[in-house]
């Protein structure tokens, strides 16, 4: 598969390269980019493709794919939440988190709470699982990293209008920092966030296809501790592996 083009860029700012003078290449300033993923918002957008292998996604590689060449990705943050009621899903979620951490992604994890909803007409009731802390973790990550001056460009990956408050805070408190709204695949830019964004990019399926984690990922729970191996769930094997009926170790060169 050929490397896809950069994500669609709806802004007007040009992408600059290295300058030259008298035959010598001059160094150029590369902006520091930080990418913040609304985990469940991205997950549901990817899930809509009905291609499970796309869920085993390397968020660092994807961050590099959506940023232009005059930026360097210095920070990648993923905000999600664990739901312990389903043990098999919980195991996949934990393994995915460890695989992301092995790639240098900072994972901020919330939780779910159970609530009761019902119909006033018939009296029927049911339980709801409600995610907690995800949006707050994302907002605090952006705010604290901006305060610490860890980025010049903030990429917000979400179509959830609840993040408009975070976008507004960033642009009012740090007007010189650029805010890029990143649309999850198949989603439209959220109009409430859009009015604070400097530009918009879209994630396309081609970016997902080229940004998958390998079948085997090594990680350490401690800096100097022994390494362990995370194996991609069989349900997330790419189609060509399932068709051949055997597994293939993919080397992660990232």
UniProtKB/TrEMBL annotation:
Molecular-function annotations in GO: RNA nuclease activity
Domain (NYN) ranges: 32-202
InterPro entries linked: NYN
Organism: Asticcacaulis excentricus
Superkingdom of the organism of origin: Bacteria
Gene3D superfamilies named among the record's database cross-references: 5'-nuclease
Pfam family, one: NYN
Stated name of the protein: NYN domain-containing protein
